[in-house]
Design a protein that fits this description.
Layout (H helix, E strand, L loop, with lengths): L1 H15 L1 H40 L4 E5 L4 E2 L1 H7 L4 E15 L10 E8 L4 H4 L6 E2 L13 E4 L1 H7 L11 E5 L2 E10 L7 E5 H8 L4 E2 L1 E6 L5 H9 L8 E4 L2 H43 L1 H9 L4 H38 L19 H27 L3 H5 L12 H14 L10 H16 L1 H12 L7 H12 L1 H39 L4 E5 L18 H6 L4 E12 L8 E6 L23 E6 H7 L8 H7 L13 E7 L8 E5 H8 L6 E6 L5 H16 L1 H4 L2 E5 H15 L1 H27 L2 H9 L4 H43 L9 H27 L3 H5 L4
Parallel strand pairs: 4-9, 6-8, 15-18, 16-17
Antiparallel strand pairs: 1-11, 1-12, 2-10, 3-4, 3-7, 3-11, 5-8, 6-9, 7-8, 13-19, 13-20, 14-15, 14-19, 16-18
Length: 869
């Protein structure tokens, strides 16, 4: 009979207090929903991107790529003749901008991936790229010059939903070259916008005769990649710098780039679940405090301490189960909505152009439901332990368990020490697992230190209140009930510490980005090909001839001109290509680069390199040594070029917040001397005193028309450093928009927990208020005591939350960020925002305590203490 009574008691408690149950369910629900939604969005985007890569790549067994530049076309015949090769498919890939005659002239156009392929091999090698001719088209149109086939994403982006004979031609632009092409049909490949054309037609159209981007190979049965690689490298005329890559290497490159972003976003989403556990704790603490006499009565009727423990845990399990189920459903809906409105990008920029479909996994749903259930059980554990330890006789007399359990400060100290040790552990597969654990230990350790912190503060303040009876009453109660006071501010610390940590991290990143932009954008004006930032990169961006910068320097109103070159270098097939920047460095590279330490002198006979922080972590290089791997890849001959012989010395490390995969800078004179290529990608301009961008625009464009031609000059854009800085910060804010949203949800859950925690504390003291009323305190004085306690303890919680949040922010800024994204930043403390957060928390805590005290003090004093008679 007793087990049935316990179940009825638990169900009645949940049913009689629906607002309390709803609050706990909402906390778990939001945490599970946010975490599961982020997981579904990331999984859907990655799955769609992987499918798109496989669709475009087809079914090769092996890929050949050049470490620098392009492959010579002569390799095609050499490789295809090998007995191990069944099929060899050549490719030429370009990044272009596409517009139609109805396009907005002020817009750069749609970024397209243009693939030149052997049309006759596509059905066997890459069926999704096989052309599907429009109705009425000639069969040989697939081989016709200046003819392309669009995939569905390109059709949608260009507004060409149907391809007919009346479809207007497209204007394609790569660098300064502009060509008109006709659309003869479509291809089935999904993913970002792309266009396919015959490789011979592509080479002729873009002046890329003799160049290939890659060779896809299918091996004959019984032969392996290792056999073919050994046979090819043994050929006497086999060039250096050709890399043998597997098809999955492309997926590995994208996965490694986006993994840190996806994991950090998931952890951030689970912050809401972490704060939700504290809300469950507060709600159940309120429940246990209100039902202490009933729990004591159950003990008298025979309920064992273990059964009382199980009773409260059963309630928390029920709340967690409902919250988890609803949270998974809500997370699915949020993910579907986000994928429809935002795509799979979420601001990170890793899956731009991908429109994924929802990928729902029962295993992932079960995992996040179990996380929600675990959070609810963790939140209900301490109230359950309190119910287990209730002394029945004292509780029935209204005395309860005064003071709570003794605090163990050593536990908090041990946890914080363990967090400090874990912060120094290297990442696991690029993920800062130990650092995340360190953050969790910091939070739990900080909570464990709350009771001694309250005791220390009360001891110091108590002598100051000797002349004020009300203040003395509040402080003396806190001294004797320090564990309860610590419980009251626990929600404050949980909410505020996480909010402070995230605020400091984002602010530090943004301030460091601003300083970095000031360093890498020294010139007031920049001239480049329009739309270059949207897909034209590497050697394709080198659009200015060698003498163009010198001609601009002779114009009136120009004080100084600096040419810069962007290239790329593939050091490993399973890693993204390094960005190679060539710019004048002068005698002091620190004036041109944001170095993290003074540059080292370059030894005679060496070429100095300055690598980004990502290169140091990804490739294991360090200042003061030669980089043989770079020397080998850079020395590989480009088509029509020569083998380069140079030894590169790493002379310094600099910060780069744009290229997560790594960047290398060398002096432009060294680059031109070694490669024989002095073209430029960007031109930095310093106007003379009194000259403005508006005044210089026409002379610059006139010189461009004279040097490059009218069509090429029309593709140039003159941009100010302020505009580039504003655009970069807008991209940053968009990337962190989801972060701000998740942070706001976590803070809202935490503040709700603060309100519930103080309600639990105040409502459990109704008899105490009745006794104070019998002793002569007025209702106003009782409310003053309660409000003062709320303000004081919320202030203590705000102080503890601020200090703990700064400790967590230190780990995020100096450990999690470098291990995840391979760059460092300076810690910045936005005191106005932190003060606003702390003030809001104190105000909510004070108002909640006053409202709860008003409700408790409204009862008749005699009724409040009649159970003691």
């Amino acid at each position: 009979m007793l087990p049935a009574l316990l179940r009825t008691f638990s169900w009645t408690a949940l049913r009689r207090h629906p607002w309390r149950s709803t609050a706990a369910v909402a906390a778990v629900m939001l945490g599970v929903a946010l975490g599961f939604a982020v997981h579904v969005i990331n999984a859907s985007a990655l799955a769609e991107f992987s499918q798109a890569v496989r669709s475009v790549q087809g079914r090769p067994d092996l890929e050949l790529r050049a470490a620098r530049g392009a492959l010579p076309e002569s390799l095609y015949g050499l490789v295809a003749a090998q007995p191990q090769v069944e099929l060899a498919s050549p490719w030429l890939e370009l990044s272009v901008r596409a517009t139609t005659k109805t396009s907005d002239a002020s817009q750069p156009g749609v970024a397209l991936r243009l693939l030149g392929a052997d049309m006759l091999l596509l059905p066997d090698m890459a069926p999704d790229l096989a052309p599907r001719l429009r109705e009425g088209a000639e069969r040989l149109d697939m081989l016709a010059p200046a003819t392309v086939f669009l995939n569905p994403a390109a059709q949608q982006a260009l507004g060409l939903l149907t391809i007919t004979a009346d479809t207007p031609p497209l204007t394609l632009r790569a660098g300064l070259a502009t060509h008109s092409v006709r659309v003869a049909g479509t291809v089935a490949a999904n993913g970002p916008p792309l266009a396919v054309m015959d490789i011979g037609a592509a080479q002729d159209l873009w002046g890329r005769a003799g160049q290939l981007t890659r060779l896809d190979l299918r091996l004959r049965p019984g032969h392996t990649r290792e056999q073919l690689q050994a046979a090819l490298t043994a050929l006497p005329d086999w060039p250096e710098g050709v890399q043998f890559a597997e098809p999955q290497d492309a997926l590995q490159r994208v996965d490694s780039l986006s993994r840190a972003y996806r994991v950090n976003l998931t952890v951030l989403a689970l912050v809401a679940l972490f704060t939700g556990a504290f809300l469950v704790y507060s709600v159940l603490a309120l429940s246990v405090a209100q039902r202490a006499p009933q729990l004591a009565l159950l003990a008298v009727l025979g309920a064992t301490p273990r059964e009382r423990l199980a009773l409260v845990l059963l309630e928390s399990c029920a709340l967690g189960l409902v919250g988890s189920v609803v949270g998974v459903a809500l997370g699915t809906a949020l993910a579907a909505l986000a994928l429809q409105l935002l795509g799979g990008d979420l601001g990170g920029g890793y899956f731009a152009g991908v429109q994924p479909t929802l990928q729902w996994s029962p295993g992932a749903a079960l995992l996040y439901a179990l996380l929600g259930l675990a959070a609810a059980l963790a939140g209900g554990w301490w109230p359950a332990r309190h119910a287990q330890r209730l002394p029945p006789a004292q509780t029935l007399k209204g005395l309860g368990s005064q003071g709570g359990a003794a605090s163990h400060a050593w536990i908090g100290i041990v946890l914080i020490a363990a967090a400090a040790l874990l912060a120094g552990v290297p990442p696991v597969n690029g993920i800062p697992v130990a650092a995340y654990v360190a953050v969790g230990l910091l939070l739990v350790g900080g909570m464990a230190l709350l009771p001694p912190l309250v005791q220390a503060l009360v001891t110091r303040v108590l002598p100051l209140a000797a002349g004020n009876a009300l203040a003395l009453l509040a402080l003396e109660r806190a001294r004797r009930m320090r564990q309860s006071a610590a419980v009251a501010v626990g929600g404050v610390v949980a909410a505020l510490s996480l909010a402070v940590a995230l605020t400091v991290m984002v602010s530090s990143f943004r301030d460091s980005l601003v300083q970095w932009l000031d360093s890498v954008l020294p010139a007031p004006l920049y001239l480049r090909a329009a739309g270059g930032a949207g897909g034209i990169s590497g050697d394709e961006a080198a659009v200015f001839p060698p003498d163009f910068a010198a001609r601009l320097a002779q114009l009136p109103g120009i004080a100084r001109v600096q040419a810069m070159r962007t290239s790329s270098l593939q050091l490993a097939p399973d890693r993204p290509a390094l960005t190679l920047l060539a710019r004048p460095l002068g005698a002091d590279p620190a004036q041109a680069l944001p170095l993290t330490a003074p540059a080292l002198p370059v030894p005679p006979g060496r070429v100095g390199l300055y690598v980004s922080e990502a290169v140091v972590q990804l490739y294991g290089v360090a200042p003061g040594g030669d980089w043989s791997e770079f020397s080998k890849a850079f020395g590989a001959p480009a088509p029509g070029g020569r083998a380069l012989s140079a030894t590169f010395f790493v002379a310094g490390v600099w910060r780069d917040y744009v290229r997560q995969h790594g960047a290398v800078t060398m002096d432009s004179e060294d680059f031109a001397r070694l490669t024989g290529d002095a073209r430029a990608s960007d031109i930095a301009l310093w106007p003379a005193a009194g000259a403005t961008a508006a005044q210089l625009r026409e002379p610059l464009l006139a010189q461009a028309r004279a040097s490059l031609g009218d069509a090429a000059a029309a593709t140039l854009e003159l941009t100010s450093a302020e505009a580039i800085r504003a655009r970069s910060l807008a991209i940053f804010d968009r990337s962190f928009a989801v972060t701000y949203w998740l942070q706001a949800v976590a803070i809202a859950i935490g503040l709700f927990g603060v309100a519930a925690s103080f309600s639990a504390q105040v409502l459990a003291r109704r008899k105490e208020f009745g006794l104070l009323a019998h002793l002569g305190l007025t209702r106003r004085q009782i409310l003053t005591v309660v409000a003062a306690e709320g303000a004081a303890w919320t202030a203590v919680g705000a102080l503890a939350g601020l200090l703990l949040g700064l400790a967590v922010a230190t780990v995020l800024v100096h450990v999690v960020n470098p291990q995840s994204f391979h760059w460092t930043m300076d810690m910045s403390l936005p005191w106005p925002r932190l003060a606003a957060l702390a003030t809001a928390v104190v105000a909510v805590g004070t108002a909640t305590a006053w409202i709860a005290g008003r409700m408790a003090a409204a009862q008749d004093a005699i009724l409040a203490v009649k159970e003691d008679w």
